[in-house]
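Box 3.1 A note on notation
Throughout this textbook, protein chains are presented in two layers. The first layer is the amino acid sequence; the second is a token string describing backbone geometry. Keep the layers aligned when reading.
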Amino acid sequence: MGFPVGADGFEFGQHPRLIQLIWFSLLIAGQIGLSFLLLTFLLARSTTRRMNVLYNFILLSLIGTPIYLILFYTGQFMTTTPPYTQCLVQAVLKHGYDPAAISSAFFLVLETLMSTIRGPVSSSSGHSHWMLLGLPYLNWMIVSTATAVIGLRFPEKVARGRHSFFCTINDATFGAILTWEMVLIAAATLVCQVALGIVVHKRRKACRKLGVPSALNLSQIVRISVFNLWELIGLLLNSAALGEFIGQTMIATSFLAIVPLSVFVIFASQKDIMNFWRCLWQQQMKETPIKDADPELQRVSVKLSSPKYDSCIRERSQAPTASLTETTVQIG
């Protein structure tokens, strides 16, 4: 289902450089957006605190972008046979990252489900909390180690696909094992997603019968559901599971390239974050001196309108009821 192999060895049609630069641009845009979002979570104490598994997931999404950009950073993206060392490093990191990312998405849905059922007081803590945060990285280390062993023992299996912008390990057994791992994690994620939908539906129905307001926000449920479906499709399309259909085409690669930007758009578009950014923008505009104004008037104007963004922090400190992606999930 892909383009015919061109004279340059790619399956990118007539404009392989343009196609790849579009993919890299999407990845870089996602990288910048996710960095900005993490800085907002870190520095903006005024926004409502989220679950740590969400922070962990966004961090992993950010870490994945430079991995996929290795050939772009090194200028080797226009060759089907990049230097062995670069290709091996990317394959090791990439194969470890994929299951780590999809498992962190699973733990995000699982923790959301548990918080919805038990409430914020009984949310994961202690050893179980650190386990949810650490397991994706442990998974990464195990898979990356196995990838490195295969790549070092069989250098000929380290290759770049003609349909993609990254290097992988071309080994059927290894690919099948990795695919089944991601399929099982994806299946568990979907089960938790369905369970979350059922629990939310029952709670909202009970609240309507009792005539009391529900603190559950349906838009947040849809936000999580849409993203997980989007990410799971993107990761699975680039596995061997659908390789004979559309897994080895530009469709799958394009899907993968847009995932980081999708993470940013979905989780940065929440109301308290948008309000915080809007507040910062308004404060910045107030502090901008008026052109051609008297210098003394400029100093007075800046002094009177320069709260050093404290107003943004105080304004957001009275946060509304937390959403399902936040720590204090409440059931009405």
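The chain has twelve helices and two strands. The two ends are 50 Å apart (CA to CA).
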